[in-house]
Amino acid sequence: MTRALYPGTFDPIHNGHIDIAARASLIFDELVLAVYDAPPKKLLFTTEERLALAEEALAHLRNVQVTTYTGLTVVCARQHGAGVIIRGLRNVADFEYEHQIGLANRQLANDVELCCLFCSTNYAYLSATILKEVASLGGDSSLWAPPYVQEALQRKFGQRPPLPPSMTGRGTKMSHHD
Ligand code: ADP
Asked: Which segments of 8-160 does DSSP mark as H helices, in order?
């Protein structure tokens, strides 16, 4: 039996993440999606909130469980008996980052393999950062995240109902037209 670990920040989980988890769940016998509790970046959602949204998003995948972790990813992988770490690649920037971290992880734990899956073309531009920025401006994020994630974003940003894409606000990168 092969178990894989899919670690990440998931702030919040979106369709790009869900797509990678679903595809990895077809390759491996079991998948553990692990929400990292303290990444070196500013978070919108608490660890508990990120965990709850991820659990809801992956509830339909019977061989997938969701957990949180702290500390080294390779240690988390070993603790869960996972011999493989899954990561998603959108572009060259992701590749360079994963290449470097992957080689460092290999030094730390050469019994844990890295398996990178290319994202689906539909989500190649999607990041949690873009999702949050569009949601904060009242934009429609229904193509990018499940309804409960959209609702959680609306609650964070003051319950504003989404506007059609053509009516999103001005004043930030997402609303700037060159
Ligand atoms: P991290 O801070 O660990 O990169 P993220 O939550 O941003 O955490 O991403 C978790 C994983 O999901 C990473 O491997 C990332 O490359 C991947 N990922 C992010 N966005 C997408 C997307 N749109 N499609 C596929 N994979 C993605």
From this structure: 15-27, 47-58, 73-79, 92-108, 128-136, 147-156
